Amino acid sequence: MKQNFKVAAIVCLTCLSALCCRAQDELDRPYTTSERQQVDTAMLDCIYLYAAADTVLAQTNERYTILQAGREWTKFMSYETYWTDSLLNSRDWKITVREFEKLKPPVRGYFPDQYLRRVADNVYEVQGMVFVDFYVYKDSVAAPAWTLSADTATVCGYLCRKATARFRGRQWEAWYTEEIPVDAGPWKLCGLPGLILRASTPDGLLSFEAQSVRRGGAYPVMQEVPSSHAQRISRADVLKLERYAALEHDEYMSARIKLLYSANGDGFPKRTFYQPLELE
Predict the structure, then answer these.
(1) How far apart are CA 60 and CA 113, in angstroms?
(2) Can you give the pTM of this predicted structure?
(3) Per-residue CA distances from 19 to 11, 22, 24 (Å)
(4) pLDDT tens digit string along 30-60?
(5) Rounded CA gap, 4 and 176, in Å?
(6) Strand 231-232 vs strand 133-140: parallel, antiparallel, or unpaired?
(7) Burial class of residue 86, CB neighbours in 10 A (0-12, 13-18, 19+)
(8) What's the rounded Cα separation, in Å, for the pair 33 and 3?
(9) Which DSSP symbol is given to 30?
């Protein structure tokens, strides 16, 4: 009996040692990400706090996002994505998983989509994900038809003017500053004679608020090559997917897990957080 116990203990220790070695090897392998290429140099960066509220779940999600504005391109994305690009660029895209995890800062939430906009024709390349589904689509959209107001407010230290518009199924109230004469803003909001520093819906369900503005830098605006796993679908299909994945979450996840892993996908909640930026 003692001999069997010793053998079992040796086997367990050997397996544990092998697992530890494998974990160490994983940490020391190069950190890999999708291929990127520089398309512009940002004249300014603006960090926004994005907030969305789901009244059914009585839940509010907050995430840090960032806008990069160059002469020919703008890009709006999660601050975590921006930070990752900046770190990899500073290391000439050569860094181990261990180094990346050690340097990675705490980030409040994650904004899953990236909006790369060509300023000349207002065409967006949007890349994102809904749980386990990756997608990419082109969006050629006219800027919102803003109504300008004489109202003023100070946002992030800048004097701003108010504008309102209905866009993609929602009413928006935006505050822009002519002190920064850049036609850009958070998400797909643009078309005003100055940078949009605050935008929100009157019902209080969605908002973007500038936290800091950095001007005069020379920061690369990167275009990410879409993953081979990404579906090339229409914007309308993305809206349907977002709704289905959130409001029929248990059904969505069960189907995906069975498809991807041939496993039982039971046990997921019926509904998850849902407050899309676009309703139509």
Answers:
(1) 18
(2) 0.81
(3) 12, 5, 9
(4) 655 567 788 999 999 999 999 999 999 999 9
(5) 75
(6) parallel
(7) middle
(8) 49
(9) B
